[in-house]
């Protein structure tokens, strides 16, 4: 064991029960041995030339694909600034591409996130919204949790009048295996604040998303 990483599956530093959690992290050698085992599990020979460096490559690729566990939401969302022009209308960043992995099969989820909020004096740098999507996307996920985590983290740190998040994604566990439904898309949405309490705000988000505003 060479380190202990904090696992933040559901929120900024908390698990689904609201308690902070940490898991023991194996060494890179241990991770490589696990990949070698999986190679044998699929019927491969880890000793053949083409596969000699594969455990190392996979262990490193996993570090990149799952780098979200190391991202600090406080750092990403900590820098907000006052909107001096007095703009207090909907800010919508749409079509943010992301790659995630489903927590059931550990295969890719490929999709787009649409994130909107109604400022209450302070605004976020636009790139930070895309960074939040990546920070939660680069973890094992369900689409529902991903949607809720993006909304919650922006809601808690920026404290806007409301946050609206919609995600459209294709789950490779439904495409490449199992029911094999190529082209099926899953849509999820979550609303906080006035998007929840005022139907016309939610309708405005939806029509702006569809380009009708
Ligand atoms: N709600 C939800 N379900 C998901 C998501 N990603 C994958 N799943 C589903 O998780 C379920 C896991 O079902 P299980 O019956 O335990 O696993 P399985 O035998 O591999 O299921 P099949 O995919 O039907 O073959 C499947 O129905 C997947 O489609 C997600 O983001 N949200
Ligand atoms: Zn899956």
Task: Give the structure's gist in a few sentences.
The protein has helices spanning 28-41, 54-65, 73-77, 126-137, 143-158, 172-175, 194-197, 199-209; strands spanning 3-6, 22-25, 80-82, 91-102, 108-118, 122-124, 140-141, 162-171, 186-191.
Descriptive notes:
With 213 residues, the chain is α+β, with helices and mostly antiparallel strands. It folds into two domains: 3-65, GTP Cyclohydrolase I, Chain A, domain 1, CATH 1.10.286.10; 80-209, GTP cyclohydrolase I, C-terminal domain/NADPH-dependent 7-cyano-7-deazaguanine reductase, N-terminal domain (GTP Cyclohydrolase I, domain 2, 2-Layer Sandwich). The chain is elongated and about 65 Å long. A hairpin with a 5-residue loop joins β4 (91-102) and β5. 37% of the residues lie in helices and 26% in strands. Mean pLDDT is 91; it is low at 1-13. Strands 7-4-5-8-9 form a five-stranded mixed beta sheet, sandwiched between helices. Strands 1-2 form a two-stranded antiparallel ribbon. Strands 3-6 form a two-stranded antiparallel sheet. The longest helix is centred in the last third of the chain and has 16 residues, at 143-158. It has helices spanning 28-41, 54-65, 73-77, 126-137, 143-158, 172-175, 194-197, 199-209, and strands spanning 3-6, 22-25, 80-82, 91-102, 108-118, 122-124, 140-141, 162-171, 186-191. Zinc ion binds next to loops. Pathway: Cofactor biosynthesis; 7,8-dihydroneopterin triphosphate biosynthesis; 7,8-dihydroneopterin triphosphate from GTP: step 1/1. Residues 1-27 are annotated as: Disordered. Keywords: GTP-binding, Hydrolase, Metal-binding, Nucleotide-binding, One-carbon metabolism, Zinc. Residues 18-27 have a biased composition (Basic and acidic residues).
